[in-house]
């Protein structure tokens, strides 16, 4: 996997839709200031901009906390690979095919190490790392913790991981969640040995090429309308706030986003 270091590590701005980074409010670099890196992994669909208000609020609260003078908090997060959006008419390195969970975890692991390496070069010290994930991002978080533990047990040097925060994790039984019931087969027991299926015998997501079909339909339909019109339609139908409607519009128009989201959901519901 080849990704531009400049793209991955530049400061967050409103034009960078695939990454969010907040630097600590204090200008102190060394001395007695303890640096923390909070690395956030989104759920599915894996667009980091859905979490901008949350991460911004978290940054504000940490910056205004009583520990600010002795601590500096860096907060970073990336969209999952495959959810890249168009920027100035250009697509930022989308994959040719949807990625599985193993590949997504590897991608997030590489991004995390790039942030740690950049922090070391800029500040001259090692940050204490806190991993944070939402939904399927929690599964990725646990996998990264396990990989970190394996390295330590094998005597390898690794970053200083001090904790993990799981927000609404989907670790097991995701198919029994409300959304999982929509995409799966819902059955009811009426009599011993008699079950009634309220969906097709085969899970919808297990239909051959389902992510490809729906992804192609979404891409085709979204190309027939302007971005501004699609944005208004999304906002009207979903009643999302502005930031979420804009992110959803970007998600629908992305070259691989819808297909990638369905692919990840399919892997979550074998």
Walk me through this protein's architecture:
It is a single chain. The protein is α/β, with parallel strands linked by helices and 270 residues long. The protein has 9 helices and 9 strands. It has helices at residues 5-9, 52-63, 101-123, 136-153, 178-183, 210-223, 227-238, 242-253, 257-268; strands at 19-22, 34-41, 71-78, 86-87, 90-91, 128-134, 160-167, 187-191, 194-197. The strands form 3 sheets. The protein has a 5-stranded mixed sheet, with helices on both faces. Strands 4-5 form a two-stranded antiparallel sheet. Strand 4 and strand 5 form a beta hairpin. Helix 3 packs across helix 4 (136-153) and helix 6 (210-223) packs antiparallel against helix 9 (257-268). The protein is globular. Mean pLDDT is 78; it is low at 1-15 and 182-202.
Could you state the order of secondary-structure elements as H and E? Answer: HEEHEEEHEHEHEEHHHH
Which regions contain 5 or more consecutive residues with pLDDT less than 50? 1-15, 182-202
Q: Strand order of the main beta sheet, please? A: 1-3-2-6-7
Strand content: 15-25%
Largest sheet: 5 strands, mixed
Q: What is the structural class?
A: alpha/beta
Helix content: 40-55%
Discrete helix count: 9
First-residue to last-residue Cα separation: 26 Å
Instruction: Count the beta strands.
Output: 9
Overall shape: globular
Brief characterization of the structure:
With about 270 residues, the chain is an alpha/beta fold. The protein is built from 9 helices and 9 strands. Helix 3 (about 100-125) crosses helix 4 (about 135-155), helix 6 (about 210-225) runs antiparallel to helix 9 (about 255-270) and helix 7 (about 225-240) crosses helix 8 (about 240-255).
